[in-house]
Every structure is written in structure tokens, then in C-alpha cells.
Amino acid sequence: MFKKILIANRGEIALRIIRTCKELGVSTVAVYSEADKDSLHVLFADEAVCIGPANSQLSYLKIPALMAAAEITGADAIHPGYGFLAENAEFSEICEQSGIKFIGPSPDMIDKMGDKAFAKETMKSVGVPVVPGSDGIVNDFNEAKKIAKEIGYPVMLKATAGGGGKGMRIVMDESEIESNFQMASTEAAAAFNNGDLYVEKFIENPHHVEIQVMGDQFGNVFQYGERDCTIQRRHQKLIEESPSPIISDETRQKMGAAALLGAKAVNYEGAGTVEYVVDKDQNFYFMEMNTRIQVEHPVTEMVNDVDLIKEQIRVAAGEKLTKPKHPPFGHCMEFRINAEDFENDFRPSPGKIEDLHFPGGFGVRIDSHIYNNYVISPFYDSMVAKLIVWADTRDEVIVRAKRALQEFIVEGIKTTVPFHLCVLENEQFKKADYDTSFIDKLLNN
């Protein structure tokens, strides 16, 4: 086991990792920007190093500063959390060259699975269903037009290096393809320094369902069931749940088996997520594989009674995966509490928290780094907490979650708590009769 882990991240995920490290008897190093000097992860870590100003390009994304912090503190491993450098092959490689373990996949694995076109071809080669589309990168809009004609409209133009909805455009007919190709490529180049695009069939009225996998150095790969992440806005997830309320046991088994097949095909090591799009007839298609721990991992932890961060660290230290104790049980939902004003197009709402009360009680978990008088910075992601609610059934989760959200008090800033309460009152949501367009329809009614 490692002696000291540096956490190359901030906020709730940094605090989440620190908690598991303490239980493992591993010392921790927090890094922080000048804007985050009062954050809880700084307080609870054994050591803390300031790595730069508020701008993340000059702090959390600055590899030399992170490596210097690891060197001066004697850290023998780095956990990247999610976001920032979690899927950065260069960072993983520099850690490897420096004799510091990167708690995540190898640089080669990050490169391969981060290239969506390559990942799609890999999955296709071992029999995992994929969305019909181009065989890899398309060179220009004329080639995209030809492929779109073959597979039929609507189609999706997607950045091969993309994520978070950047470099993605839905094209309904041929007249729109040239302008959308240029816009998607330009956006992708600006966001990822890579403007390459591929084309795939756009699945209308889909659900977004993902399978959590974990692999070790001994060839063991386990899957921990699925998460339904369909409630999203502009490709950003807001509510996740497990199990998915829309898929049958037969589909569930097929999806899990396909995820294992894909992960084993690439000798996957560490925590990863195989993401699918599921149509109204329960046909499922591979979308991408994320080579990191996800924001929504607590949902899987609660229904499996497993600490995924602990397993992730143990695997990185060369230990064997712990076989899941039992199949997933009960039902769980996670609600992302963002510092946003949902009544004004989810406008960011940074500022000082003047009063704070977290909900509690049986089956209620809060992952957060905020506290009374804490100042929410405008420089980073707007998520300030995750409310995770477990119960025996989905209906019971909805009742318990409403109770918990009503107890959730945050004064001084706007949050998405009222939005989540609005969703839980919606009859379509209660009946699981929705797709990825649910939020747009809800807000436009």
C-alpha cells in the first residue's frame, strides 16, 4: 500500500478521497489554488501545498506545479479524482517516468479509450453493439454528408476527443451538415486542441445508461451494475440513479456482459465506466468509455455496499480486486446540488454561504466540501454538493429524497435544490416515462 497520496483535485472529490485514505492508513497531500485556501480538503489533509492562482490553467491543470508538490512532500502516488487531469495521458506518463503511481489507467489506455473512434472500433471488434456511423474520423463535411446519407438522418457530429457536450452537433438534414461540421470542429479544437470529428446515427428519445467496471493487474474485471444518467441538461448530468428504471433484467444482463467483454478486451485496469445509449425498444449501443472515477460513483457504492475509491487505490497498489459481496440491492439516486439559479437558465450563483443545513437520516448521504460562511468561487465547476438517497424501492427513494431536499438549507446563493424538488413532483419522472430531452420539456412547459 502507498505511504502518501497527493490528490490532484479540489472540492468534494478531494475530500472524498482523503476520507478513504484515512481509513486505509495512508497520509494525504492536498493541493490548492489561492482561491481554495479555505476549502475543507485543505483542512482535512495531512499536508497542503499551494500550487498557484485561482485560474485552473495556472494551478490544478499545471503539471509541473503538481509534480513539484508531489516531490517536496514525498508522495508515492497521485490520485487525479475526476475532471482536470484525470484523463490526461501526458500527466499519467510523467507520473510513470517520475516513479510516482498514477491512480488510474496507463497513458496508453487513456489515449486509446479517450479516442472515441478507436474505442468504438475496439468494442465493435469484440461484439459490443455500437451506434451505426463512420469508421473513424471523417476528413471533411463532404465525407460526413456521404456517411449521413448512408445511415440516415438525424445524425450526430461528435468530437473524437470530446466530453461534456463540447464539439457535438445534431444534424437533422443534409442542408445543415456543412455549417454544423465547421462549428463542431472549431469548438472541439478550442476545447481539446483536436478538431477531429466522427459521425454516428442520432438515437431519438434515448436513455443514457452506464456500467461501472473495475479491473486489476491480474486480469480480474468486475462490473457493479448500471446507472441511469438520463436526466441531463446540455449533456451535463443532474440526477443519476441505480438501477435504471427503464431496462429489463434481460437487457441489464446483456449490458453488463458487454461491458465486461469490452473492458477485458483492452486489459482494463482501474475504475472505468462503459456508457451506452438505449433506445425505446431497449436496444443499447456503446457510446464511450470514461477512464476515471465518475461524479456519480456514490450511487453504485450505495447499491453495492462497496467503497469504489478504496478499490481503485488498492488496485493501483498492485492488490487484487475484492469480489463484489452480492448483486446490487435496493434503489439509489444522486442529486447534483449546483450553485445555479435554475429559474434564470441555470445561471451560476457564486457568493458567500450565509446559512447552511445538510439533511440527514437513514439512507441519506451528503458528499460536499462547503460549510457555513464558505465562499463559492466563480472560477470552478458550480457543483457544491451531492445528495445521495438510498431506499428499498424507487418510490421510497422519491419520498425520502423529497424529505431530504426540503431539509437542505443554503442561504446566500441560489442552488438547484428547488429544481430537484420540481423534478420529483413530475408525474412522468415518477413513472420513469422520460428521455434525455426531459429537462428541456419540463422547463418549457
Brief summary:
The protein has 15 helices and 22 strands. The chain starts with a strand and ends with a helix. The chain has helices at residues 11-24, 40-44, 63-73, 89-97, 107-114, 116-125, 141-151, 177-192, 249-265, 297-304, 308-316, 394-407, 417-424, 427-430, 438-444; strands at 4-7, 27-33, 47-52, 77-79, 101-102, 155-159, 168-171, 197-201, 207-215, 221-233, 236-242, 270-278, 284-290, 331-338, 340-341, 347-348, 351-352, 355-357, 364-368, 375-376, 383-391, 409-411.
Structural summary, described in words:
Helices cover 34% and strands 26% of the residues. The protein contains 15 helices and 22 strands. The protein has helices at residues 11-24, 40-44, 63-73, 89-97, 107-114, 116-125, 141-151, 177-192, 249-265, 297-304, 308-316, 394-407, 417-424, 427-430, 438-444; strands spanning 4-7, 27-33, 47-52, 77-79, 101-102, 155-159, 168-171, 197-201, 207-215, 221-233, 236-242, 270-278, 284-290, 331-338, 340-341, 347-348, 351-352, 355-357, 364-368, 375-376, 383-391, 409-411. The strands form 6 sheets. It has an 8-stranded antiparallel sheet, sandwiched between helices. Strands 3-2-1-4-5 form a 5-stranded parallel sheet, sandwiched between helices. β2 (27-33), α2 and β3 (47-52) form a beta-alpha-beta unit. The protein is globular. The model has no long low-confidence stretch (mean pLDDT 94).
